[in-house]
Specification:
single chain, about 300 residues, alpha/beta, Rossmann fold, N-(1-d-carboxylethyl)-l-norvaline Dehydrogenase, domain 2, 2 domains, 6-stranded parallel beta sheet, about 50% helix
Length: about 300
């Protein structure tokens, strides 16, 4: 199967590499062209524009940062819509507006190009290890057609409904993550104030009802006040804004998400937007008067 992959970021590049490793032909495009080179070294081909990439592939995947980026890649002057052939399938694996997803799908349908939305969760580790959770919206036959490619990138692939449903499901994922990261940060700070051995505390509670991926993989970052990149704070903040906008449209109130939105906004304003989202612990630590030696 020939696959075009557009977007060689922290997530996209390893996802495209895993498709290549699974035996598919891959043609890549990225706005910053040098980011294509590791994929070319691994055997991928290059295209000059999204339009060119789409013209030579039966499946076209996009994995870029935000709604306007996807709209430009799909509908712009050199966009996918101008190159994709009738019957081809576009898979958007970005995290964007559900409404914009449905609008793009309708415009592609006018050109007889099919579309599913398939945002992912699992961070850079999941992208590298092909263990992503993939939430898919679209027609059943289109999802089935995409499965060999999706299975090259993910471990848990769930068809959740019609087009746009994947994006709503991803919004729910990001809302739950917001509360989980906040809870772990607060728990770690409470233990630190009590003078406990936080490694032992994390081990003690990880097997009980408080256990979570965040606790197992990010708690000690919060204790050590170091935040190596897994998933950028500024990207989660963007995703949370999408979730809050969807909530407003549907008449839902998300108080914990609204609080996290403000905390992340402050962290980004202080220059920490490119750190892992566990960096929200900076604020919780500061409110408790916990200062690292390097900051004192």
């Amino acid at each position: 199967m020939k696959v075009a992959f557009i977007g060689m970021g922290t997530m996209g590049a390893p996802m495209a590499l895993n498709i290549l490793k699974a035996g598919h032909e891959v043609v890549v495009y990225n706005r910053t062209r040098e980011k294509e080179l590791p994929l070319v070294d691994a055997g991928a081909m290059r295209a000059g524009t999204p339009r060119e990439a789409a013209a030579v592939a039966g499946i076209i995947i996009t994995c870029v940062s935000d709604t306007p980026d996807v709209e430009d890649v799909v509908l712009g002057d050199e966009g996918i819509i101008h190159g994709a052939t009738a019957g081809s399938l576009m898979i958007d694996m970005s995290t964007i507006s559900p409404a914009a997803t449905r609008q793009m799908a309708a415009k592609l349908a006018d050109k007889k190009v099919r579309m599913i939305d398939a945002p992912v969760s699992g961070g850079s580790e999941g992208a590298q290890n092909a263990t992503l959770a993939i939430m898919v919206g679209g027609e059943s036959e289109d999802v089935q057609h995409a499965m060999p490619v999706l299975e090259a990138m993910g471990k848990t692939i769930t068809h959740v409904g019609r087009i746009g449903s994947g994006q709503i499901t991803k919004a729910i994922n990001q809302v739950i993550l917001a509360g989980t990261f906040m809870g772990v940060a607060e728990g770690m700070v409470l233990g630190m104030k009590a003078g406990l051995d936080m490694q032992k505390v994390a081990e003690a509670i990880s097997g009980g009802a408080a256990g979570s991926w965040v606790l197992s993989n990010r708690a000690m970052n919060m204790v050590n006040n170091t935040y190596p990149l897994g998933f950028r704070t500024k990207l989660h903040h963007k995703d949370l804004r999408i979730a809050l906008e969807a909530a407003r449209e549907m008449g839902a109130t998300l108080p914990a998400s609204a609080l996290m939105d403000q905390i992340e906004n402050g962290i980004i304003g202080r220059g920490y937007g490119d750190e892992d989202m566990s960096a929200i612990a900076r604020v919780i630590r500061e409110l408790a008067g916990i200062v690292s030696p390097v900051e004192s």
